[in-house]
Structures are given as C-alpha cells and as structure tokens.
Design goal:
Blueprint lengths: L18 H10 L10 H13 L4 H7 E4 L2 E4 L1 H10 L3 E12 L5 E11 L2 E8 H7 L5 H5 L3
Antiparallel strand pairs: 1-2, 3-4, 4-5
Helix pairs in contact: 2-3
Length: about 140
C-alpha cells in the first residue's frame, strides 16, 4: 500500500438550476425535434402535454405546432384513446365513393368503441378541399 494522497477532480458537467435552463439544455443538445428552437416553444409544448397528462419528453415528440397552434399527433391521440379505454377501427381509409351526382369523392371513416357505446366519424376529401387544407405545404409535398 502507498501513503500517497490521490486527488480526484470533480465532474464539471453543467447542471441546470431551473426549468428554463433545463429546456435550453435540451434544445442545445438537439434531443428535441428540430422545430423546437426556443425556450418559449419548448415550454408551451411541455405545458400542453402536461395538460393532457403527458410527461415533457412525450409531449416534445407527440405535440406539433401548426401555424402557431399546438396539435396532438395521430399517434399521441391514439395513445390517449387507448389509455382511456377507447378502442377504434378504421373502416374506410381514403376510399373512393360515388356521390350519386356523377361525381366521386374520397372518404375516411373511423369507428370508436368504449364499453357498449359505439360512435362513427367520417370525413370527405371534398371537406378538406373546401376548408383549404389541401393547399398547405405538407399536402402539396406529400399528399398521401
């Protein structure tokens, strides 16, 4: 055995002192999606997720900002439905249908189940066109 004293240097890793520093550290480390660029955006997404019962890191990957409004991803919505005992089934997915006036349209129909309660929701492509949603960048670049 030696009588030498060994000096250990302390780890100099930066530890965030508050939530804002934590958010900035996450942004700087690039572990958040590329669209989250500011502390304010990160805070808003984390808070939105918290209001929906999500942990912050879940929210960062399931909540999107679309034209300044926060929206839940389809995967996040499906997870919330499942967590609350609601099952769903896609009955029609962008299927071509005859509207009876010589014109056709495309429809998506989803059925929701919870216990003995069943609900059905349908949406037509013509509704999206009428609302102006098909002219947005994402639909023009990737229409399916």
């Amino acid at each position: 055995m030696s009588d030498k004293i060994v000096k250990h240097e302390q780890d100099t890793a930066v530890m965030p002192r508050n939530e804002m520093e934590q958010l900035q550290l996450l942004i700087d480390s690039k572990v958040l999606p590329a669209n989250v660029k500011t502390i304010e955006q990160a805070f808003a997404i984390a808070q939105f997720g918290k209001d929906l019962g999500m942990k912050p890191m879940q929210a960062f990957h399931q909540v999107y900002s679309i034209q300044g409004r926060l929206a839940l991803s389809s995967k996040g919505l499906g997870a919330m439905l499942w967590a609350n005992g609601i099952q769903y089934k896609t009955l029609q997915d962008f299927e071509k249908v005859d509207k009876g006036d010589g014109k056709s349209d495309f429809i998506t129909t989803i059925e929701f189940y919870r216990g003995k309660v069943t609900d059905r929701a349908s949406f037509y492509w013509s509704d999206a066109v009428r609302a102006g949603w098909t002219t947005k960048d994402n639909w023009v670049k990737m229409p399916e």
